[in-house]
Amino acid sequence: AKHQEKEEFTYQPMLAKLASSVFDDQEWIYERKIDGYRIIAHLDKKPKLVSRNNLDYTENFASISKELGVIKKQAVLDGEVVAENKDGIQKFQLLQHYENGDTAINLKYYVFDLLSLDGHDLTELPLLQRKKLLAQLLLKYPSENIIFNKHILGEGQKLFKKAKNENWEGIIGKRASDEYYGGKRSDSWLKFKLVNSQEAIICGYTKPAGSRNYFGALVLGINDKNNTIKYIGNCGTGFNDQSLKELYEKLGAMILVKKPVIGKVNQEKNVTWVRPELVCEVNFTEWTEDKHLRHPVFKGLRDDKNQDEIIKETSDELPIAEEVKEKELSFNGKKVKLSNLTKLYWDKEGYTKGDLIQYYDNVSSYMLPYLKDKPLSLNRHPNGAYQEGFYQKDVDISHLPSWAKTAQIHSESNNKEIDYLICNDKASLIYMANLGCIEINPWLSTYKKPENPEFLVIDLDPDGNPFKEVVKVALKVREVLESMKITSFVKTSGSTGLHIFIYVATKYDYDFVKDFASFIAHKTHELIPGITSIERSPSKRKGLIYIDFLQNRRGQTIAAPFSARPKPGATVSMPLSWDKVNEDLDMNEYTIFTVPEILGNRDDPWKDIKKVKLDIKKALSHLG
Question: Is the overall model pTM greater than 0.85, yes or no?
Answer without folding.
Answer: no
